[in-house]
Amino acid sequence: MANESVDKKSAFYIDEPPINADIESFFAKYASVPPSALREHLTTVRDRAWQRHTHQCLGCWRFLFPSVKLSPIYSEIVAKCIDDGATVIDFGCCLGQDIRQLVYDGVPVERIRGYELDPFFIEQGYELFRDQEIMQGKKVFAPGNILDDQLLNEIKPADYVYVGSFIHLFDVKSQPDICRRLTRIAKRAIAGRQAGAVVPGEHPRTWDSLGGKLMRHSPESFTQMWSEATNGEWQVESATLQTTNNGNDSHKGLIFVVRKRGDQ
C-alpha cells in the first residue's frame, strides 16, 4: 500500500497475512471463509482498520493470534464458563479476536461481553468474523471507556475480566486508577497481556496520534503496583515476561493473572 499512514508506520506494517493451517481452519469453521478467499478477506478488513488507527497489533497481524490463549488460566476460564455458568468480559477488545476464540472453544456466547472505545473496531470485527447477526442479537459488544464512571456503574461484573494490550496504554500515574477501575467489573480474576520490560519505565507512544506515554512493567513493578493500588485486596498470581522479538527489551510481553484475595 502506498498511503501516507502505511509509509509513515512501515516498521509496524506487514503486507502479507501470516496464514497457517490453524488460521485457515479457524476462519473456515467459525467464519465460513474458505482458504482460497482468506488472504483477500483478511487484508481487506485489516487495511480498513489500519486507516483508522495505526496500531501495532493491526500492522503486524497480531489480532490473528488471540492472546487470551496464552493466559495460564485460560483453561480455567473456559471450564468455569462452560460448566459453572461463569462470565467473562474482554475490556479493550479491539476487533474481538479473543472473544471469538472463547466462543470457538465452547464458551456460550451469552456468557461473554466485550467493550471497545472505538465502535469502528466492533463493526470491523463483525466483518472479519462474519458473525454480526448473532453477536448483535446477544448484545455481546458495546462501546466503552474505562474512564467513564457511569458505564462502570452500569456494567454487571463478570467472574473474569480479560485485558489484552490495554493497561500499558496508560502512563505511570494513571495505571493504578485503571487497575482499581477494572476491579469494579471483576469478581474473581483479571488476566491479560501487555508490553513489559526487564527494567520498568515509561516510553513515548510513537505509533499513533494520541501521544503521551505508556508504562512498561517488570513482573516486580507490576506486582507492587497492584498491591498498592488495591490495598492488597487483589494480588498478582503470576506475571511472566516473554521475549517477542530477538531479545530486544522493548519487545517483551508481560503475561499476568491478578486474583481477588480469597478467591479459589
Summary of the model, kept short:
Helix 3 packs antiparallel against helix 7. The chain has 264 residues and is α/β, with parallel strands linked by helices.
Tell me about this structure.
InterPro entries: Meroterpenoid_MTases, SAM-dependent_MTases_sf. The chain is of the alpha/beta class and 264 residues long. It folds into 2 domains: 4-63, no CATH class; 66-260, Rossmann fold. The chain is 38% helix and 22% strand. The protein has helices spanning 4-8, 21-30, 35-52, 56-59, 74-84, 97-104, 119-129, 132-137, 149-154, 175-183, 219-229; strands at residues 88-91, 112-116, 141-143, 158-164, 186-196, 201-204, 213-216, 234-243, 252-260. Helix 3 runs antiparallel to helix 7 and helix 10 (175-183) packs across helix 11. The longest helix is centred in the N-terminal third of the chain and has 18 residues, at 35-52. The chain is globular and about 55 Å long. The protein starts with a helix and ends with a strand.
